[in-house]
């Protein structure tokens, strides 16, 4: 697998990342071990998890303790996903973030995290307090690089500018956002902000929450994520008439190229401006292997242009400009 620079940093990662959101839920520990081995054997290095992904951090920590050498993987995790009761209160306060970091290190059985990400913007905490906690984590040696997730364009630009305003602060190198042929809204403001600040994009749900595979066109397979109680609404979000037209275009392109819709959707996204590594989650090892094979596909310009055209998001003032 090819590797890319992660934002404006000295860190290089595989151009596909392994997601662990369903480890311990729809993916048992044995299958997780198989997936990590398959990913590592394919040249994959970037593994993404979070402190709120159920037992995912603990499963990954068990695997790091003897299954795969720790120094051959880039471990990314997150904190600040939700508010909670109590004096610390969860969210992105200094106390909550540093407590979450301690817990993640313990679960992952490691002395450092390669990429630590703020899972969400927290309007209840001053931004300088939140970002100062990231600086503390890096200067302590417990974190190597930092990023954010699910930030809007103005939020990303504000945080990035704050971190570059003084040489002692740690710059943001990534933003993790939903991005696929079905969800291109970030191209209005987030992508321009990331480009301006040299921040790499880590797209989640690169297959449109599974819809771009084509398996949900007519019904919901009983063994799919969409049939799972905790993920049914997650999939339904992208089962629309517009999505159906895009899925059909992906299937047509895949048929013409003699490949799978998974390969087409991932290859399209992987080579979008500012994208570093789409994060691929899979229910089975076979599904993951199929996704990893997309690294060998480069879309012909005509097919890329056709997919761009059918999935182009609606743009208006001020994104288009006053005279467009």
TrEMBL record:
Could you tell me the superkingdom of the organism this chain comes from? Answer: Bacteria
Gene3D superfamilies membership? NADP-dependent oxidoreductase domain
Q: In this entry, which stretches build a coiled coil? A: none
Extract the Pfam families matched here: Aldo_ket_red (PF00248)
Domain (NADP-dependent oxidoreductase): give its ranges. 15-310
User: This protein is called what?
Assistant: Aldo/keto reductase
């Amino acid at each position: 697998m090819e590797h890319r620079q992660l934002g404006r940093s000295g860190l290089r990662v595989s151009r596909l990342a392994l997601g662990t959101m369903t480890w311990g839920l729809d993916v048992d520990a044995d299958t997780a071990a198989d997936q990590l081995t398959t990913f590592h054997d394919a040249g994959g290095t970037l593994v993404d998890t979070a402190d709120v992904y159920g037992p995912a951090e603990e499963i990954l920590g068990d695997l790091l303790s003897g299954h795969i050498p720790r120094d051959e993987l880039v471990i990314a995790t997150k904190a600040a996903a939700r508010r909670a009761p109590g004096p610390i209160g969860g969210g992105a306060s200094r106390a909550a973030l540093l407590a979450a970091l301690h817990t993640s290190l313990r679960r992952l059985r490691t002395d450092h995290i390669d990429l630590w990400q703020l899972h969400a913007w927290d309007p209840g905490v001053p931004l300088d307090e939140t970002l100062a906690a990231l600086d503390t984590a890096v200067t302590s040696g417990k974190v190597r690089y930092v990023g954010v997730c699910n930030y809007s364009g103005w939020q990303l630009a504000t945080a990035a500018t704050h971190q570059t305003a003084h040489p002692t602060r740690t710059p943001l190198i990534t933003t993790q956002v939903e991005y696929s042929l079905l969800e291109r809204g970030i191209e209005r403001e987030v992508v321009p902000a990331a480009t301006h600040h040299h921040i790499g994009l880590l797209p989640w749900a690169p297959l449109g929450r599974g819809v771009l595979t084509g398996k949900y066109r007519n019904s919901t397979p009983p063994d799919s994520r969409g049939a799972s109680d905790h993920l049914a609404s997650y999939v339904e979000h992208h089962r629309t008439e517009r999505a159906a037209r895009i899925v059909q275009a992906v299937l047509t392109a895949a048929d013409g190229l003699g490949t799978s819709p998974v390969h087409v959707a991932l290859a399209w996204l992987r080579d979008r401006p500012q994208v570093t590594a789409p994060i691929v989650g899979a229910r089975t090892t076979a599904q993951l292997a199929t996704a990893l094979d997309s690294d060998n596909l480069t879309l012909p310009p005509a097919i890329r242009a056709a997919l761009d055209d059918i999935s182009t998001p609606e743009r208006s003032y001020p994104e288009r400009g006053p005279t467009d």
